[in-house]
Amino acid sequence: MAGFKTFLRSGHWPTLLASFLYFDFCFAIWVLNGAMAPFISETFQLTPAQKGFMISVPILAGALMRFPLGVLAQYIGRRNAAMVEMGLIIAALTFGYLAVDTYDDVLAMGVLLGIAGASFGVALSLGSGWFPPKYKGLAMGIAGAGNSGTVLAVLFAPPLALKFGWQAVYGLAACTMLLPMVVMWIAAKEPPDREHQTLREHISCLFEKDGWAFSLIYIITFGGFIGLASFLPTYFYEQFKVTKVEAGQLTMLATLMGSGVRVVGGYISDRVGGINTLSGVLVLVAVSLVLCGQAGGSLAVTTLLFMLCFAALGAGNGALFQLVPLRWPLTTAVAGSMIGEIGALGGGFLPNAMGLSKQYANTYLWGFVAFAVLALAMLVMLRLVQIRWTRTWAEKGGRARPNAMHGTAVGSRSGTSQSFAR
């Protein structure tokens, strides 16, 4: 407890709280179509491939919107960018309530829900910006635990859709966004770790090997999280013939593990290193996914395996974003958005793979296997690149270097990025 109080005193905890709520509610909106997929699929009599594509649209749209929001945050501030984004989300949800009547409308609404998915890089950078390097992992883990918004979506959207109709859920969700907006306006302060740079300097991480390595790993940790979280209501409903509400409740059990363990992942990474943590995570994800595909006859075993898989994914997200501010301490928002943009695209892969596997092989197994193979490939890549990382900007295992000061680190300015390319 004393250590946690020291952590809170080292930064600005009201901003961290505002960042958590902002990301939490945005995440709930982002996965709304996935949470209501059984209702939407029943309304339009969708094929398995159509279901997978519909679920993937918000994920892909959110991924593509992250980087522009990260750049905007560098110019107008992360707090202001968050306020603008939440205003746009309310407008998008109003459209969903008033105008969504066909499958094509649902796809268009999925693009608009992607606005909420753009929040990730800004939320983590805003929440951790007041904290010194040794606490960055924990701060980002707390802000990133806002992916517990998945729990809100799968827990409340199905019963509300059952009672009022799934289109009405969009309107109800618009009202809930007022809470994080008010908290952000009152409590949050723009962190001091901001530097005026040219657009070229902002996007420099796009042209660095490290940026792409992070993004590929994030395809597994976050892409897997958002892809599975969005698809699980459909999977439980179709595979085990539970009710739509029960499918949401089972999904909630799994995603809650991932959200809670994210904080633990950041905390552990501060101590043993993000590289070490990620290595264990990728192995556990691959094994648990294959077992999930083979346990399709048992609801209890499958649910427990999904809980284990989500715990690993959550820890992996916390571990990866413990490393991001060490590598890009003064452009964390842009780097995080770029990594999130590429990484979240992996979330679009998984629902489509599951839908195609079911439609053409009459089993979901090969969708699980495909993602597990991808996780093992990323493990091999990580073990190769970590040799260079620990020689340049991180301690052995991926911990912060002792001489790293608040807001500074080796290669913190874009102009020194060449030192990492050696």
First and last CA, distance: 42 Å
Using the 3D structure, state the CATH architecture: Up-down Bundle
Discrete helix count: 19
Structural class label: mainly alpha
How many domain units? 1
Helical residues, percent = over 70%
CATH uppermost class: Mainly Alpha
What's the SSE pattern?
A: HHHHHHHHHHHHHHHHHHH
Unreliable residue stretches: 405-422
Outline the structure in words.
The chain is an all-alpha fold and 422 residues long. It has one domain (14-187, 201-401): MFS general substrate transporter like domains (Growth Hormone, Chain: A, Up-down Bundle). 79% of the residues lie in helices and 0% in strands. The protein is built from 19 helices and no strands. Helix 5 (48-76) runs antiparallel to helix 14 (209-240). The radius of gyration is 20 Å and the shape is globular.
Compact summary:
This protein is mainly alpha-helical.
Question: What features would you highlight for this structure?
Answer:
422 residues, mainly alpha, globular, 79% helix, Growth Hormone, Chain: A
List the topology elements:
Elements: H1 2-9, H2 13-30, H3 32-35, H4 37-44, H5 48-76, H6 78-99, H7 103-117, H8 120-128, H9 136-144, H10 149-164, H11 166-176, H12 178-187, H13 199-202, H14 209-240, H15 244-272, H16 274-294, H17 299-327, H18 332-361, H19 365-392
